[in-house]
Amino acid sequence: MPSLGADMEAGTLVEWLVRPGDRVTRGDIVAVVETQKGAIEIEIFEDGIVHSLDVELGARLPVGAQLATILSDGEAPPSAPAAPIPDTPSCAAVAPEMSAPPPRPDTTAPVPTGFGIAASPAARHRAAECGLDLAGVTGRGPDGAILLADVEAAATGGTTKGTPRPAATSDAMAQMRKAIAAAMQRSKREIPHFQLAQTIDIHTASDWLAARNADVPPGERILLGTLFMKAAAVAAANVKEMNGHYEADGFRPAPGVNLGVAVALRGGGLVAPAIPDADRLPLPALMAAMKDLVSRARAMRLRSSELTTGTLTVSSLGETGADAMSGIIFPPQVALLGIGAPKLRPWVLDGTVVPRRLATFTLSADHRVSDGRQANRFLAEIETALQHPEAL
Amino acid sequence: MTREDARIAFLEELVKVAPDLDPGSIADGDHIQADLELDSMDVLNLVAALHERLGVNIPEPDYVKIATPALASVYLSQRLAG
């Protein structure tokens, strides 16, 4: 059971996507685990052959527990026989009033249904197995997303189409709140935070972007937030003390910038999945990556690597709201950039007070790793980058 | 396109962008950001969806003209009448 963040203690295995004998390659999605942050697709970190699946579906396991045995080429299997995997519980309990379509022939692989409905991969898979239409299932995950348990409940007649949506997805929300609390308490306990804030004139960047967006259809427009993300990623690439992980043996700067993007979920809670090598992505590619990440975060289809590889997180308040935010670092990272909402404010330019669009960038940094000097340099890098948006 | 048709199209696309919203409880005067809590990414997705569905390319300076269902139905019906 991989750790999917500093806050994770255990996870529930809900789906295997491989069988014994399958060949797997690093990066393949092999299983789905439900956590306090929703269902996460688990990627494998080595090449090899699946020898055995060692855990039953539905089992709740601590971080570090063995899920499966993967043998590299030529490696002998372990002597102890693996525990057998029981069959998935039958779908026979589907309530008759569900008017489910006839069961598929058992030779056919289940086909995901309900595209466009927010549901975990495990829930989708199970619904397909049971011939259940996801449109008739009430989701109790974040943003009303359908979880495996919801499908199981529906399959046994617990919930049918027409049930009013719950007033709040209170349980899943409470779980996520707990996960956030655990990570932030650990951060406040272990990381000696310090903060530096700088108000930056973003008028040039904002005008440049407006002119660019005026010439393209909505599908190709780029958000101001994406420009900020790119500037932050470039700054992180240049100031190593802000980009990496603090482990038991101290700080390890990261070779690349995997930019964590704090995504607020509708209804509450947030996750901060990472975009790999964000400093090297051109703006349209970074925008596409952000769109993809936000939609998958809300539909609960994030991958394990996205939750664990972030090297610096950016949290933006968006285009309206408060002036500034000084955030809490997400361990094991060592810095977090909070960006306030841009505002039109008086500003002195060439000796004259003029209205300019300004935004306040607040860097929270880890005093075990850096001092004000590096934090200052990071903010200065962002300011410089935003004065030349065409180069981003 | 009539205002009513425009309102229906707008609400349908709005609910696709924010599936947790109940279309029956959205008031005509609800502000999509202040009241319905869409963020800038959601607004862009809504504008892109309206472009796709109605062929109306809403420029950024006009986003304020679709800030509520009431405003949007007027704006979209006018754009489609012209």
UniProtKB/TrEMBL annotation, chain A:
<comment type="subunit">
    <text>Forms a 24-polypeptide structural core with octahedral symmetry.</text>
</comment>
<keyword id="KW-0012">Acyltransferase</keyword>
<dbReference type="Pfam" id="PF00364">
    <property type="entry name" value="Biotin_lipoyl"/>
</dbReference>
<dbReference type="InterPro" id="IPR011053">
    <property type="entry name" value="Single_hybrid_motif"/>
</dbReference>
<feature type="domain" description="Peripheral subunit-binding (PSBD)">
    <location>
        <begin position="118"/>
        <end position="155"/>
    </location>
</feature>
<dbReference type="GO" id="GO:0031405">
    <property type="term" value="F:lipoic acid binding"/>
</dbReference>
<feature type="compositionally biased region" description="Pro residues">
    <location>
        <begin position="78"/>
        <end position="87"/>
    </location>
</feature>
<keyword id="KW-0450">Lipoyl</keyword>
<dbReference type="InterPro" id="IPR023213">
    <property type="entry name" value="CAT-like_dom_sf"/>
</dbReference>
<dbReference type="GO" id="GO:0016407">
    <property type="term" value="F:acetyltransferase activity"/>
</dbReference>
<comment type="similarity">
    <text>Belongs to the 2-oxoacid dehydrogenase family.</text>
</comment>
<dbReference type="InterPro" id="IPR036625">
    <property type="entry name" value="E3-bd_dom_sf"/>
</dbReference>
<feature type="region of interest" description="Disordered">
    <location>
        <begin position="73"/>
        <end position="106"/>
    </location>
</feature>
<feature type="domain" description="Lipoyl-binding">
    <location>
        <begin position="1"/>
        <end position="71"/>
    </location>
</feature>
<protein>
    <recommendedName>
        <fullName>Dihydrolipoamide acetyltransferase component of pyruvate dehydrogenase complex</fullName>
        <ecNumber>2.3.1.-</ecNumber>
    </recommendedName>
</protein>
<dbReference type="InterPro" id="IPR004167">
    <property type="entry name" value="PSBD"/>
</dbReference>
<dbReference type="GO" id="GO:0005737">
    <property type="term" value="C:cytoplasm"/>
</dbReference>
<dbReference type="Pfam" id="PF00198">
    <property type="entry name" value="2-oxoacid_dh"/>
</dbReference>
<dbReference type="InterPro" id="IPR050743">
    <property type="entry name" value="2-oxoacid_DH_E2_comp"/>
</dbReference>
<dbReference type="Pfam" id="PF02817">
    <property type="entry name" value="E3_binding"/>
</dbReference>
<dbReference type="InterPro" id="IPR003016">
    <property type="entry name" value="2-oxoA_DH_lipoyl-BS"/>
</dbReference>
<dbReference type="InterPro" id="IPR001078">
    <property type="entry name" value="2-oxoacid_DH_actylTfrase"/>
</dbReference>
Automatic annotation (TrEMBL), chain B:
<feature type="domain" description="Carrier">
    <location>
        <begin position="1"/>
        <end position="80"/>
    </location>
</feature>
<dbReference type="InterPro" id="IPR009081">
    <property type="entry name" value="PP-bd_ACP"/>
</dbReference>
<dbReference type="InterPro" id="IPR036736">
    <property type="entry name" value="ACP-like_sf"/>
</dbReference>
<protein>
    <submittedName>
        <fullName>Acyl carrier protein</fullName>
    </submittedName>
</protein>
<dbReference type="Pfam" id="PF00550">
    <property type="entry name" value="PP-binding"/>
</dbReference>
